[in-house]
Amino acid sequence: MPYCVNCGVEMNPGAQACPLCQTPAWHPEQDEPSYFPTTPAQVTPASKRALAALLSSMLGSVSLCCGLLNLVLKPGHPWSLYVIGAALMLWVWFVLPLLSRRLPIFFRLSADVAAVGVYVYLISLGTDGQEWFFHLALPILGILCADVFLLSFLLQGHRRSMLSSMALTIAAIGLFVLGLEFCIDRYLHSLWHPTWSLVVAVACIALIVPLRIVRRVPSLREEARRRFHM
């Protein structure tokens, strides 16, 4: 029950004034605004083209400044190629999707992998390592590209659950690791002798099997959905 702030007499909850001294009643829940908004504020979404222009200017300015510094400080050592290649790779990864939202997934993945390839090639130019680029880095990029394309095709081709998507992703990681050790062994020893990649592949299989069991058993699937909001 509320009380009068002047004389302390007990009042009715809806009273506007004290019945004894006529002091106006104070209702903080009605008179004062709430500390927190009752409705979420509407935020105007930022323009994707404006964000793309901002990111492009930032990456371009960093590349230009590093290129000029390279010409002034160490013109014989092209260290600025590393920064320029990284800026180009980040532009393809983050700015290109902002400019073209309707690009096919295969084109976007091709552009991402090509950006990585250009960056690694610029590193090879700076270190005089064209041999390891063509005989090691390029085959690894090819395996990565094929692995990503296969995974995207399997995920986009059918409507799959989260458990199935996780299992396919883990399988793609295991295949890439096997291909990675194959390329390294062929480059260094001209012979494939799988060791650590088999450990990773077995670990991937050990993760895939429980996921498939949970996917096939309805009770386990419902329990996973409730606990992990899948």
TrEMBL record:
Keywords: Membrane, Transmembrane, Transmembrane helix
Cross-referenced InterPro entries: DUF6320 (IPR046283)
UniProt key word tRNA-binding: no
A UniProt-annotated Pfam family: DUF6320
Spans traversing the lipid bilayer: 50-73, 79-99, 106-126, 132-155, 167-188, 194-214
Protein name listed in UniProt: Zinc ribbon domain-containing protein
Taxonomic path: Bacteria, Bacillati, Bacillota, Clostridia, Eubacteriales
